[in-house]
Amino acid sequence: MKPRILFFLALLCCTALHMTRADSWIATGGPADTQVSAIGVASDGNLFVGTPLDGVFRSTDNGGSWTPVNKGLSRLDIHTLSINDNDHLYVGTTSGFVYFSDNQGESWVITDSTGVSDIYAVGFTPAGQIFASGQGGVCRSTDSGSSWDELLGMPPVIIWSTVIVLDENMLIAGSLGMGVLLSTTAGTTWEHVYPGPPDNDIYSFFQDENGEIFAATGMGIYNSTDNGVTWGQLPNPVNSNISLLLVDQSDRLLAVTGEGVFVSDDRGENWVDATSGLGDLTVSSLALAGDGTIYAGTDGGVYVYQSVTSVDQPAAAPEEFSLQQNYPNPFNPTTAIRFQIADPGLVTLRIYDLLGQEIATLLNEELEPGVYTRNWDASGVTSGVYYYRLQAGNAVESRKMVLVR
Questions:
Q1: What is the pLDDT of residues 69-106, one digit of tens each?
Q2: Rounded to two decimals, what is the model's pTM?
Q3: What is the DSSP letter of 195?
Q4: In this predicted structure, what is the pLDDT of residue 213?
Q5: Any idea which architecture 21-309 has in CATH?
Q6: Per-residue pLDDT tens for 202-211?
Q7: What is the 3-state secondary structure (H, E, C) of the chain?
Q8: Does domain 322-403 have CATH number 3.90.190.20?
Q9: What is the pLDDT of residues 7-53, one digit of tens each?
Q10: CB-based contacts of 106: which residues, under 8 Å, 6+ apart?
Q11: Where are the domains of the chain?
């Protein structure tokens, strides 16, 4: 029997970024001297922002100019703005009302009273169900807002910070002080699925084009690849709350923290400060356009993010040996393992179970210095904790991963 491998340690060898980049925010044309509380991008590229005092503004030239579009809005205290797949706009107000527009904001129709105050988020399903979250809980409408049903089965005395609809029956809601709750019954019943401690504050969610969910929390960054059932944690750029997250089409991660804005090209292993251009402005909302442009709503208008990475010189060979945390983790059934080696030679990458039994060999060959990725398909393996071990010459490192079915 092979010796038990129960002493593996997950030690991260952080390496410097071998690239030159200039990350900055550029101010758009406004809205001038206006605080932005919410921002969204329609499929045609038109920008919409909600403000806490002046209602809704629209830009048809990528933020160059802005026009107020408030016809029918009897309340201008906009807290959230959402756009569905049909480019229908929904805004929620701090007074607890939801408004709807099907003509790019030219006119608005108020829905019936939701029953909750201070609307934080509005989500919708393809079949037309609408969910609104706010102080006091979550409510649902099946008739375009003509009436709302209070969703019971939730813990009392809870302020819901955000809600995201995954399909007709599944949605997750983030709370302040009680973590994440999941419903698989269209909001009728709920269960806790804590990312982090049970008292974690959930400030916002972001779902990327692959369906992966990211949670910005008071305890860091969490992600889920199984509709919020299980969560993993990503490295935090600073020891601070994460209020907003965004992942673009290039898998670049943008995080808004109490100490500024940070960006990562490698799932949080390395972070670059991307606060330049914002000054002392506070970022309250983020939006990703179809062409990959990132917009930020601030207390001083709308800004657009620009990142330039120098590629004039070829990347230098890695200066040290390191093994990164697999991604995603937990996973089902495949995951990617990324590593780098500094010297040429024989490299092995093997998977072990908790008893030290070898499960799979992913790599056993001569490699030149560089950065590599190997995938493991665990389709025929049972759920549980596994270890992966990388060896190159005398250098050895191991990490733990979790397979969840």
A1: 999 999 999 999 999 888 999 999 988 889 999 999 99
A2: 0.69
A3: S
A4: 92
A5: 7 Propeller (2.130)
A6: 999 999 888 8
A7: CCCCCCCCCECCCCCCCCCCEEEEEEECCCCCCCCCCEEEECCCCCEEEEECCCEEEEECCCCCCCEECCCCCCCCCEEEEEECCCCCEEEEECCCCEEEECCCCCCCEECCCCCCEEEEEEEECCCCCEEEEEECEEEEECCCCCCCEECCCCCCCCEEEEEEECCCCCEEEEEECCCEEEECCCCCCCEECCCCCCCCEEEEEEECCCCCEEEEECCEEEEECCCCCCCEEECCCCCCCEEEEEECCCCCEEEEECCEEEEECCCCCCCEECCCCCCCCCEEEEEECCCCCEEEEEECEEEEEEEEECCCCCCCCCCCCEECCCECCCECCEEEEEEEECCCEEEEEEEECCCCCEEEEEEEEEECCEEEEEEEECCCCCCEEEEEEEEECCEEEEEEEEECC
A8: no
A9: 232 222 333 333 444 568 888 888 977 899 999 999 988 999 999 99
A10: 69, 71
A11: 21-309, 322-403
* pLDDT bracket for residue 158 (50, 70, 90): low
Report cis status (omega within 30 of 0) of the bond before 52: no
The mean pLDDT of 324-339, rounded to a whole number, is 79
Which residues neighbour 28 within 8 Å (Cβ) at sequence distance 6 or greater? 59, 62, 63, 64, 295, 301, 302, 303, 304
Q: d(Cα 335, Cα 70) in Å, to the nearest integer?
A: 48
